Request: fold
Amino acid sequence: MSTNPIGIFDSGAGGLSIWKEINALLPTESTLYISDSKYAPYGPKGKEFILNRAIINTEWLIDKGAKLIVVACNTATTNAISYLRNHYDVPFIGIEPAIKPAALTSTNNTIGILATKGTLSSSLFHKTSERYAQHITVVEQVGEGIVELIEAGKLYSDEMKHLLLNFLNPMLEQQIDCLVLGCTHYHFLTPILKKLLPNEVRIIDSGAAVARQTKAILDQNTILNTSREAAFYEFFSSGAKDVMASILDCETSKIIQMP
Ligand code: DGL
Reply:
C-alpha cells in the first residue's frame, strides 16, 4: 500500500500549485493528478454538481490505486469533503481558505478573501469564518471569471489585470492588510498581485501547509513510501491540456485524456 500513488484532483490546472508543493516535499511519492477541466469552473455550478464531480474523481482515483486523496480545490473541499470522508476508506486532505493564519497575521484586523462563489457560499466556509474571524472584518470577494481566464491561458492578459483591479480596489478601500487566496488557481496570480497590491498587504496561500498535512497523514497511517523505487507522476485531463502542459513545462502528449 505504501508504494501506491497519492491521488490529487481539481477542476483544472489550479491544483498543480498543490501538486508542486507535494512533489517538492515528498519526491519519492508517486502521484495521479486529475484536471477536471471539461467541467471547469466548479465555482458557479452549485453544491450538487460539485459533489457529483468530486465523487466521480474520487472513485476514478481509488480505482487506479490511490492510497490517499488530496482535494486540491477549495470549492470541492468546502462542498464535498465531509461526504467523501464518510463514504470512502482512504484518507482525504482538503484545502480551505486560510482564514485562521490571516486572522493571526493581520495587524489591523481586516482581511480580504478572494474565492469562488461555491466556496464563499458553503456552510464549511461560514463555520470556519465564524470560528476564526469573530473579531475581525472579513471582506469577501467572488473571483468571478478568474478561473476561466487561467484555463484559457490568459493569466498575463490585460483582461486579467482589469478584473483583478476591480476585485482588489473595494478591498483596499476597506484597508485589508492580508489577502487570502481561497482558490488553488489563484496561486498563479501571485506575481501579478504583488505588482497590484501595496507592499504592506500580505498574500496568504496554503499550498505548503497542504503538503505538510499530506506528509503528516501519510505518516500517521504508516503509508509513507519508503521504498527506493522511482516514483511515477501521471497527469490526466477530462478536457483541455495546454495550460497544464505549460505549467508542467511538458508536451501535451504527456497528459492522458480521460472521459
Ligand atoms: N481550483 C478551484 C478552487 O480551489 C477552482 C474552482 C473552480 O473551478 O471554480 O476552488
